[in-house]
Amino acid sequence: MGAATGPVLRAAVDGSALGNPGEMGWAWFIDDSNWQAGGAPNGTNNQAELLALINLFKATAGSPVYLEILCDSQYVVNSLTKWMPAWKRRGWKKADGGQVMNLDLVVELDRVSSGRNYEISWVKGHSGHDLNERADQLCRDVATAYKTGQAPKTGPGFQGLVGGSECPAPASSTAPAGQAATASSNSSATPATSDAAEQSVAERLAALEACVSELTAEVRKLREQQRDLSFGEENQAAPNTLF
Questions:
Q1: Is 72 assigned a catalytic role?
Q2: Domain boundaries, the chain
Q3: 68 included as an active-site residue
Q4: Is the pTM of this model over 0.90?
Q5: CA 146/CA 37 separation, integer angstroms
Q6: 224 phi/psi in degrees, rounded to 5
Q7: Fewer beta carbons within 10 angstroms: which end of the chain, N or C?
């Protein structure tokens, strides 16, 4: 965990097992361009919930995002935030000396979450939360596909930060030796080369402008949230000044 140090992405994770155990599906969902689902012919609900979170961390690894994760499984939330440090100190044993359930998945969750910037919160399932409802439907679709012998829909995966792609990396402003002189002195460049360069610049500019617009909107939203939180704290503190 840690303080938000990059672009914030809110994601929901969920899992389902028909019959528990039974045909299993898991899913994480950010938006229609960024989601993933999977499953197995047999598994438990807790295994599916763990797999959803593990695969979210794996999919976004290497991207400088701060994850706000919504999960309707208290087992998963508590495993990651409360129980895991003690389990590790005891050699992956519970307080009663028994082995931690779903040990392979718990160890993998510890590995993929290590060093990541995120926060995870419990939300009540089937309570109308948009992201949770989408993740729930996706994982149920996978479980149902396994039950009916159909190919499950696995989704596009993580496509990036903005509009399905990450912000383009800045282009180098320094041309290789001799190249700048050639470009500036060769005023009779072929139209095809000139048109291609112009199109490349235009596409890059459009991508950067879209990225800036999205990030500006996110900053504005976060500032409004910060202002609302500060206002709430002031109102809560005000009555204490009367005594």
A1: yes
A2: 8-148, 179-239
A3: no
A4: no
A5: 12
A6: -65, -40
A7: C
